[in-house]
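Bench notes, afternoon.
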Amino acid sequence: MDSINILTFSTLYPNTIQPNHGIFVENRLRHLVASGRVRSVVVAPVPYFPSSSPLFGRWSQLCQVPRHETRHGLTIHHPRYPVIPKVGTSLAPALLALGSLASIRHVQRNGFDFDLIDAHYAYPDGVAAIWLGRLLSKPVVVTARGTDVNLIPRLRIPRKLIQHALQRASAIVAVSEALKQAIIDLDFRPERVTVLRNGVDLGKFFPQDREKIRRELGLDRPTLISVGHLIERKGHDVVIGALRELPDHVLLIVGEGPQRARLQSLVTSLGLGSRVSFLGAISHDEMARYYSAADALVLASSREGWPNVLLESMACGTPVVASNVWGNPEIVKLADSGRLMNERTSKAAAQAIRSLFGNLPQRAATRRYAERFSWDETSRGQVDVFSRILKRSRGL
């Protein structure tokens, strides 16, 4: 069978300036292309911002994102689209589609006549992709990944736009059973939704020289690690609070975000300054080192589609403690993988951590558990979805 040509469309995609942004979309695509069954060009729009002055913080970085780049052998285009803060949520899909159309036509003129659009994140990306697909007479696959179907639909206009788009999608993909149920709750039949979970790169995430890394990092106590953007829903404050009941433990926090100052103030107010380290943003390629050094990862999120950090940690031999929400229970199933919290509180997190440390699994057993989640099954599932769509569109 000839290769399937897809246009990958998502605002959640890494770039030179934001190398960890939407890394999960890039990882899935890289493994799909490596299968030899699919070729792709990426259109990853970036919000327009007029100034590169550092006075504007993270917004000024958007000016530095190249218009075109190559990552891991994939050609990526970064057209600009206008964003209207706070009041522009309902306009976002239209602005995104208008800002991207010229770039997509450029891709076609330069010889890549793709068979379908593979859009990631239902809103605004999936909605915009449906409109672009109609303009270009191309079928569209929409993958839902988290807040796009479990939070954004609480807003009246976005909910209607998401429903309209998913009704017209050639296929709907969810990265977990929990997100599939969220889509069903938007009035879609179960058979319309295919679950294709994220995998883990077992070649990148593997147990490293634990004792050597711990010496380098100055770690000599039971060590927890909390990874993710420093935003409220990631629950770093819950993990920090748990330390009050875990006097022997230290905590590494990896990530950057708007809540850093508040979290640092919380650490100070609780008298935990000597036991909590803020490491800032760390390259995805470097994370295996930190996972390997820790005794457990703690993820206290309020919402998750399919959190990659859980599998990345397990692949490095490090078990996890996770909140019992959305996709987390689909990953943390056996004792070798870790524990789920009874509720999303600091007290419950501390209880789950104590339970885990009371009977820590062998790190080799945790690694074996993670090996069940390679990308191969997901890539096969994607090819099957794409093939069915193209057979229908070609009347075969």
